[in-house]
Specification:
By secondary structure, this protein is α+β, with helices and mostly antiparallel strands. Helix content is 49%, strand content 22%.
Length: 150
Amino acid sequence: MKARRHALILAIIKEENVRTQEELSDFLKKWGVEVTQATLSRDIKELGLIKIPTPEGSYRYALPGEKLLPEVLKRAERMFSDTVVAIDFTENLIVIKTTSGTAQGVAAILDELDWKEIVGTIAGDDSILVIVRNKDQVEGVLNRLHKLRR
């Protein structure tokens, strides 16, 4: 029971912005798991959950080491403005040209952003191939990439 509850707690905090133990308890109830506040408190401690700030100014539960989206976005903007030379596309493929030796770092930050439209990236020395899930999503991804360059 405990292992199932822990797995469920981890799944919930990954998918939802859970701010309080009470909210977490409510989510667990929706999955048919009744838990006391004391047990939930122990579970949080055992799982090593921490509270991190949200862009809205509140806090939510997260795993230690979970990247904060605002920090990742700032790094992405800095890398794109410093290293990206050109962006072009065809069908559902986007090619990003970078300064020599920086493509892998730029691709890694793109992967970290975890945009659902992007299936994956392949990086060489100065070029990145971005594979977009379908061609209808390319325009939106291009707009977001261009915003990172500013």
